[in-house]
Amino acid sequence: SKDPDVVKFLMVMALCNTVVPIKSNDGTISYKAQSQDEEALVNAASNLNMLLTSKDSSGIAEICFNGSKFYYEVLDVLEFTSDRKRMSIVVKEVKSGKFLLLTKGADEAIFPRSCPGEQTKTYLEAVEMYSHLGLRTLCLGCRDLEEDEYKEWSKKFQDASCSLDNREHKIAEVCNSLEQGIHILGITAIEDRLQDGVPETIKLLRKAGINVWMLTGDKQTTAIQIGLLCNLITPESKGQLLSINGKTEDDILQSLERALTIMKTALERKDLAFVLDGWALEIILKRSLESFTKLAMMSRTAICCRMTPLQKAQLVGILKSSGSLTLAIGDGGNDVRMIQEANVGVGISGREGLQAARAADYSIGKFKFLRRLILVHGRYSYNRTAFISQYSFYKSLLICFIQILFSFSSGLSGTSIFNSISLMAYNVFYTSLPVMTIIFDKDISEATVLRYPQILLYSQAGRLLNRSTFAEWFGRSLYHAFVVFLITINAYADEKSDMEELSMVALSGCIWLQAFVVTLDTNSFTCPQITLIWGNFVAFYMINLILSAVPTLQMHTVMWHLCNQPSYWITMALIVAAGMGPVLALRYLRNVYRPSAIDVLQQIEQTDGHAQAPGNLESSTGTYLDYLLTDLRRNKSSIHQPLLSDSASSR
After folding, report:
1. Which sequence ranges are marked TM in the entry (predicted)?
2. Count of CB atoms situated within 10 Å of the CB of 488
3. Was 80 annotated as part of a binding site?
4. Residue 556: what pLDDT?
5. Which of these, 540, 549, 361, 346, lies nearest to 434 by C-alpha position?
6. For residue 244, what are the β-bridge partners?
7. 196 is in an annotated binding site
8. How far apart (Å, rounded) are the C-alpha atoms in residues 273 and 555?
9. Is 619 exposed, middle or buried (0-12, 13-18, 19+ CB in 10 A)?
10. Cys-Cys crosslink for 459: which of 115, 257, 365, 382, Cβ 3.0 to 4.6 Å?
11. How many domains does the structure of the chain reveal?
12. 319, 341, 368 - which closes a domain
């Protein structure tokens, strides 16, 4: 029909952007854009016969419409910012010399700047309808400019752009002065499809005790629909979404207090979440930060819409300051501040660019990979770090306690029971390789972790690294020191034994015990693990046999002499039996009478080879396992206070 408004609408779709058209050898045109939305709009316009064919370095854009070519000179670009929520360009039609302002942006940024008296009801209804479908909406408009008006404005714009003082604010003011009296042309709606696996990933993370918030720049209605689609919030029949909004500041504060009251009274009965926009957040941060912090700590889910990059970072900062551990994940440049503010930043590399990925601690290709990053790799990393840190203290304390005991028995003479070579090689050679086997260790399989994500609560509650576990390792090192020292002294403290033999027997006892300790605390055995543990054990004897063959060393012939004595091997057997016997007994009794959820899952895996247990075992252990996993969530914040953490709570 060649309706003028329809033609202008398509022209704004094709021109008001920073898209670069690329023409291939066969004549087809593709588009390169920083924003997927802009690329979608240009492609949509081309499908409707408004084809952007070229843009040259001088700013001349060529558009082909129904077989006719039109040329426009792009004079100025009023760039999009999170505060302005709109983008405009000033173009000059080459043929007629007419100046035009083309604008697109959020409805709340465009409608207030429309022509006085313009009917916007139809457009508002369209925006609302599209938002309920979960679509991302933009409002398109244009305005005719007089040449004198443009020249006067252009001078102000150039002055603001060259300003060294408060430049961004001055540019925004100048842009705002031009973006008035806009003629609304229409509304676009873009579907931002969820990636594969997003709902399943969020469901698993929530089951693992992780609170999930969505911080977005979309409209509230669109954000809520997306939240429903990705399992972030539950329907009204099962949950309740508390809205924090209002026309005035007092209304917003009252809705905040009302949401806080409901959250306190109905938390156990319904899956509650709250939703607020950027304007409400700005008021709350100024006047009621304490109440909002309380609400944030009680809510497992929140939807924060129309957020600027700064507000996203502020929200993450509030959660951090309250003692929560935060992870921020995003895929665009507007997520960079949030990612950098969080304890852990994850960037998704994709069509939105690499800004988020480069600013993050971790980079992944798709959102669904987050489940393995946290539940599998994150949990294994925590378990391994917990063991390595505590085992390092254990092996160092063991040799220190033996030296202390020897000092008392020698009348505090200051004589060392170990020679300098043994002390140097103890941490560097004898005990460093076995501990590296932990990088291959998996207490339960990946499939089991993903089937029972609640097991992550063990890590969040500090079950494997806390004061109790550290005291256990401390007590084990003290007990093993007594065992090694007393058995060695009683076996070799006679006139026929010299100091070097006594030293080597005590050192051998330490090496034997540590090999068995690492073996006992290893959950899965692979060829590298077996090689490192027992290969290092063999290497200990080979190194000392070689050193014993050097005539200039004090330990000359010591190891050769000991290895030929049956009493030496009997002593090692006694040390291992006395040292590991009680440890094994306590481990057995705990697994039988007070098994943890991990013990139960290991039993299921050992019986059937994977997470799917046979019917009789599943039925006998299923109820107890469910109780343990439920109890973990119920007592999440009161189990242990983790070491090496700023807070006992983890979110």
Report:
1. 473-492, 504-520, 532-554, 566-586
2. 26
3. yes
4. 77
5. 540
6. 276
7. no
8. 71
9. exposed
10. 382
11. 3
12. 368
pLDDT at 9 over 80: yes
**Do the Cβ atoms of 114 and 141 come closer than 8 Å?**
yes
Q: Is 306 annotated as a binding residue?
A: yes
Structural domain of residue 350, as residue ranges? 198-368
Per-residue pLDDT reduced to its tens digit, 283-319 = 999 989 999 999 998 888 999 998 989 999 999 999 9
Same domain, 505 and 585: yes
Query: CA 448, 451, 456: angle at the middle one, nearest 5?
Result: 80
CA quadruple 173, 178, 183, 184: dihedral positive or negative?
negative
pLDDT, residue 429, reads 80
pLDDT higher at 601 or 198: 198
DSSP state of 135: P
At residue 626, the pLDDT reads: 62
Whether 11 and 116 share a structural domain? yes
Give the separation between CA 164 and CA 167, rounded to whole angstroms: 6
Q: How far apart are CA 19 and CA 30, in angstroms?
A: 10
168 CB burial (10 A radius; 0-12, 13-18, 19+): exposed
Is 151 one of the annotated binding-site residues?
Answer: no
Same domain assignment for residues 209 and 152: no
Tokens of 433: 């390789």
Is position 216 annotated in a ligand binding site? yes
| Most confidently predicted of 182-186, 433-437, 590-594 | 182-186
Whether residues 208 and 297 share a domain: the answer is: yes
What letter does residue 324 receive in the DSSP assignment? -
Place of tokens 């160092």: 396
* Single-letter amino acid, residue 297: M
Neighbours of 550 (CB within 10 A): 11
Residue 218 assigned as binding residue: yes
- Whether residue 502 sits in one domain with residue 568: yes
Does 312 appear as a known binding residue?
yes
pLDDT tens-digit profile of 223-244? Answer: 998 998 888 888 765 778 889 9
Q: Enumerate residues 6+ apart whose C-beta is below 8 A from 581.
A: none
At 348, is the secondary structure helix, strand, or coil? strand
